[in-house]
Structures are given as C-alpha cells and as structure tokens.
Amino acid sequence: MQYHIVQGLFPTELLVDELLLTTLDEPLLARFNIYNHTKMSDIATYQGSVVSSGNFSAANGIIHLIDQIVDRNRIQSISTINFLESNGTSFSKLSQVIEAARDSKPVKEALSRNNTLFAPNDDAFSKLPGGYFDKLIKDRLHCEALVLAHITQFGTYFTNGIIDGEIIPITGWKYNTTVSKNPEGIRFGNSNALKVNLATTNGVVHEIDTLLISPPEVELGVSQN
Predict the structure, then answer these.
(1) Do residues 38 and 20 make contact, with C-beta atoms less than 8 angstroms apart?
(2) Structure confidence by residue, pLDDT tens digits, 103-143
(3) What is the DSSP letter of 39?
C-alpha cells in the first residue's frame, strides 16, 4: 500500500492536471489528472483511479478517497518508448516504425512529452495488405505520420477519466479518435483495447488490435486488393 501514500501535504487545491507525486514506494511516481467534461462533472484520477472525495484531515496528513486499488503491476518506471522496446514480442513492428521515424522532430517531441500512446500490437500490423509494412518501414515520412496518428495531442488519458463518445485529439490535430465504452470493453475508433492503463514515466499506453488509421490514409502505392 506504500504506493497509495505520497510525500508531502496535498490538499485538492494543490492537485493539478499531470502532477507527478513522489510515493513511499520509490522510485515509482504517481500521476494526478483532471479530466474536464462539458456534460458532467470533472473527473479527477490518481494513477487512473477516480478520486471520489478528499481533503479529510488526519493527525499526520490529508486523506483523499479513490474508487479502487491502484494495480502496481501496470506501472512502469520507464518511459513510453522504453516500455515498447522491453515488450518486443508484442510491439516489435511498432518499435520498427518508431525507430524509422526517430530522427523526426515532431516524433521526438511527441514521445518525450506527457502523452497517451494507442499502441497497435504486431497482430494489428498483420492485418495490413501484403507488402504494405515492408514499404512503409522504408519511408521515414510515412512512418512519422503513422506514429503521430497514435499519440495524443494533450497528455495522459486513463480510461477512468474518459467517457463514452468522447473525442480525443491526436498529435497535429490531423486525426482524432472517438471513445466507445460499454460493459464489454472499450474501443478507440475502430480498434478494440486489449490492455489499458499501462502507465509509464511520461504517460500511459493502451494496446489496441487495429491501427487507428486505415492503409489508404498512408499512401505507398500498395495494392488494396
């Protein structure tokens, strides 16, 4: 439970979006987020768990109530890019695409800031037309476009902070993805989320089973038949 205790006093007025808190479970940090919604009250989360109420005074600190225990196994003390590299059996093709675009300034900036990565696994890439991936990986600009189409324009989107029908802007505003939430699971656009809320030091990763953009949107002259 040490991960649920942070060092210092943080009343709600000091808890701002994307605040990183030092926990007693060092070196792990906890991320605080605030999600603004127009049709309902804002949602605050502590490492993805909803903060239901807070500012309860105790003899040695302040207590905020969350709706579930934080799953420590979903927290990584490494960056998003290093997380993908350490899970090569699931994300080897995505890692190749990122590596091909790694010298791109927009990609560098997107991967270094606080972000949410919708990470297509290797099975997602296997759905592409034959020969498409081999041509894609040789084209830096198209690799850049594909990477940026899977990273959010703004910050960290834990699933408990987003609502059904929400539209999430993607880097550069060229794309967005619509969230569908129901008892069976969560979808981002046409992609099913397989594993969600895989937290890294600079954001969160959601593993998806289909690319967020379809092949015709990244034209390489590959037959779609």
Answers:
(1) no
(2) 999 999 999 999 999 999 999 999 998 888 998 999 999 99
(3) S
Q: Work out the burial of residue 194: count CB atoms within 10 Å of its CB; fewer than 13 is exposed, 13-18 middle, 19 or more buried.
A: middle
The neighbour count for residue 173, using CB atoms within 10 Å, is 8
Q: Report if pTM > 0.85.
A: yes
Evaluate the omega torsion of the peptide bond into residue 27 and state whether it is cis, within 30 degrees of 0.
Answer: yes
Q: In whole angstroms, give the CA distance from residue 187 to residue 44.
A: 21
Bridge partners (DSSP) of residue 22 are 29
| Pair of tokens at residue 56 | 């309860």
Question: b/e for 15-25, b at 16 or more Cβ within 10 A?
Answer: bebebebebeb
Contact (CB, 8 A) for 200 and 81: no
The rounded distance, in Å, linking the Cα atoms of 3 and 52 is 18
